[in-house]
Structure formats: structure tokens, C-alpha cells
Amino acid sequence: MLWGISEKAFDLMRIHPNHDYYDAVIVGARCAGAATALLLARQGARVLLIDRDPDLDDTLSTHALTRPAVRLLSDWGLLDDVIANDTPVVTKTHFHYGPEQISLPVKENASVPGLLAPRRWLLDTLLRDAAIRAGAEFQGDVSLVGLGRDLSDRIRGATLQFADGTVRTICASLVIGADGVRSSLAKAVGAHMQIRSKACTATAYTYVEGIENAGYRWYFGTASITGLIPTTNGLHCLFSQIKPGHFIDEFAPNAYRAILGELAQWEPGIADNLQARGPAERLRRFPGVRGYRRVCAGPGWALVGDAGYFKDPCTALGITDALVDAHRLARAFAQNPDDVRSYQTERDRFTTKMFDITQEIAALDWHFGRLKSLHLELSDSIRAVEDRLISQVRPNTMSAPA
Questions:
Q1: Angstrom distances, CA of residue 209 to CA of 86, 107, 212, 279
Q2: Neighbouring C-beta atoms of residue 255, cutoff 10 Å
Q3: Looking at 125-275, which runs of residues are DSSP E strands?
Q4: Beta strands in 166-315 (DSSP E)
Q5: Which of 97, 329, 373, 402 lies at a 20 to 30 A Cα distance from 379?
């Protein structure tokens, strides 16, 4: 590893024709990194967006967007593109608490016509391409291998390794980690944990066809969560979550059959239909990771998305968190590009309650009355985030320049 470059070396790089300077280098081009690149580029910043993968294929996700995420995509001028790429609008959400069903309409307005659950290869690519149109540079098949610091220990840039093995050192005012739960940037800067969850769920999921778009459908058993989420190209994401200790016994022999067994408790007809059809794509398994919140901003660096804050997928807030992080960091950068610590203050203000709720739901030890109360509290927390977005004057992020 090449961690650590002297201030003198960075002074030389600023005048060396073989090195470049950027306002921001963003490590990770999935939804958190691509959205951040888009917003910073629209503010006029020179942005380099990199990803270790050569292109943005599919990735683990349950896809569901909540109202703040839909609102941001609308504000950024991208919501119509998501819908135009055969992603259905969701106008109802159904919660099944054991035998009880509660159905809620989605409140619609000009910015939020409903909810959506786009496939990640679509969402991430749309955000990345919009960032490029806004002026950000993108390089795939590139890895972060080092950081540069000045004598005050401020991050001043990044050393990157390209697909052909060449190494380049890039000077930057801000290096941003959007590189997920195993973030190399978080490790390099020593971003310590603020809070850590005691519980997590294990998830198995796949994609199925032949189901009507009736909205988001969540099914809560005594120690399980199952769901049907309408997504891109006429498919539904079918998933089930259980305690990690039961994962091997229940999902290892035949995970698809096990998921359908859970679904059949509420939807026997759909389960029989899906058993006859089989899955439309391969089945994915996620053994679970305990949630956490890290310090997400320091001298010359910041973390967005799962790199700084990860909650169990049982509340399906990961993409929303990523897009809201991008919005918050862009605002902080616009206010003071040399000190983005206000980004962390804003993030921590709105995430502690949601983290606690998610942790309790992920334990799968609740009774249905308590679970309904937790969902009401979660809804209030999500509404507070949306209200905050509405109240803020956004830093030149509405739509792409003509």
C-alpha cells in the first residue's frame, strides 16, 4: 500500500504536468458516489469519480425507494428517466402483521407521483451518466491504493491504480468514500464507529415474473420478514429475511422453496404460481452485517452511503440514505469546501432514531403490536427527512443545464 505522501510532494504535484488536481475525488460510483458526483459537478466543482469495477452491473439490493429518495430524483431531473425505463410507480403499500393486513395509499404530488424500486444497474447508471453530463470525469477499473496528507494530517489527495497497473497521484480538496461497508477510505482515515447494531437479518432474494403491481407488499411472521417489491422490466423482487442462526438450516437446501414457503402463509395462490414458473433470475444470498454509523467527515475527507452509515435491509432505507447523504454533503461543500463537518452534524441529527428502530426490527423478537408502533415511528422519521429537504434551498441541483 502507498499510504502517506508528504506536503512537499503535493506541492510539486500541483505544478507537475503529469498530475491532476480535482475539487473532489469520489471512490465508488454506485448510487451514493454517483449522486454526490452529480451534485458537486452541477455546483461547478471538478470531480473525478472512480470505481473498482469496469462498469455498473447489478448489485445486492431490495430496491425500494421512500419518499425522500423519490423527491430527490425528481428535483435532480432523473425521475422521469427511471419511470421511462419500465420501472413501475407504486401507489400503495401493504403491511401484513400475521393475519392482519393494513393497506396505505401513497400520498401523491408533483414531486412524488408514487414510490419506485428501480434495479440498481438502472439507477446507478442513470446517476453516473448524469454526473458525466454535468462535467464529472468517470474512470472504471480503478482502485484507491493510497492517500496523501499534509503536515497537519489533512487529506490532500489520493493515489489510484488503474487497470493497466499504472499508478497516479491525484491532488484533491476532498476525497470521498462511497465504497460500501468495507470502505477502504474509512479504514485509511480511521473513521471510528459511533454506534453499532446488536442484531441483523440474513436475506435470500430473487426476481420473479407474472405478478400484478399491487404496490409494496411486506409480510411479517413471528420471526421472519417476506416481501414482494415491483421493480424494473415487469419483475418483482421476492425476498425473505430470518435470523442469521437459522439461515443455513432454512435457506441452504433450497432457498427458493423456503422463500415460497414463507410467502404461502399469506399468498398461497401467488406462491403456487411462482413454484410452477420458477425464478426469473438466479437467487442471491446475504448472510447479514450488523448495522453501524461511522464518523463521516474529517479534514479533507468524507463518507457517503454504506461507507459511513449502514442499516439492516429490513427497513429498506439504504438507497434513500445514500441519496440523502449526497444531498447533505453537496450542501456542506457548497457552504465551505474546506470544512464539510456540517454534513455529519446534519446526518447524525436525523439518523439516530431510524437506526434504533431498524435495530429493534432486525432482532425479529417483536410482537405485532410493537412492530406496528415501530413502523409508525419510522414513518415519522422518514417524514422529518422529507420535510427537511423541502425546507432547504438546494445548491444548484435541480436539473441538468441545457
A1: 14, 27, 9, 8
A2: 19
A3: 137-140, 143-149, 155-161, 167-177, 193-196, 202-208, 216-220, 225-230, 236-242
A4: 167-177, 193-196, 202-208, 216-220, 225-230, 236-242, 284-286, 292-294, 297-298, 301-303, 309-310
A5: 329
Give me the CATH code for the 67-118+198-286 domain, please. Answer: 3.30.9.100
Contacts of 131 (CB under 8 A, 6+ apart): 34, 35, 37, 38, 41, 47, 49, 138
Backbone angles phi, psi at 204, to 5 degrees: -125, 135
Sign of dihedral through CA atoms 259, 285, 215, 101?
positive
Q: Which residues are CB-neighbours of 324 under 8 A, at least 6 positions away?
A: 68, 69, 72, 385, 389
Please state the domain extents for the chain. Answer: 7-58+119-197+290-366, 67-118+198-286
Amino acid identity at 153: D
- Of 225, 230, 257, the closest CA to residue 242 belongs to 225
Angle, helices 341-362/368-391, rounded to nearest 10 degrees: 160
Q: Please give the angle made by the CA atoms of 20, 26 and 32, to the nearest 5 degrees.
A: 160
**pLDDT tens series, the chain, 402 aa:** 333 334 444 443 333 333 479 999 999 999 999 999 999 999 999 999 999 998 888 888 889 999 999 999 999 999 999 999 999 999 999 999 999 999 999 999 999 999 999 999 999 999 999 999 999 999 999 999 999 999 999 999 999 999 999 999 899 999 999 999 999 999 999 999 999 999 999 999 999 999 999 999 999 999 999 999 999 999 999 999 999 998 888 888 899 999 999 999 999 999 999 999 999 999 999 999 999 999 999 999 999 999 999 999 999 999 999 999 999 999 999 999 999 999 999 999 999 999 999 999 999 999 999 999 999 999 999 999 999 999 985 544 444 443
Distance of CA 26 to the CA centre of its chain: 15
Query: What's the whole-model pTM score?
Result: 0.92
The letter for the amino acid at 379 is S
CATH class of 7-58+119-197+290-366: alpha beta
Among 78, 58, 300, which Cα is nearest to 177's?
A: 300
**Strands 47-51, 20-27: parallel, antiparallel or unpaired by DSSP?**
parallel
Q: Are 179 and 301 in contact (CB under 8 A)?
A: no
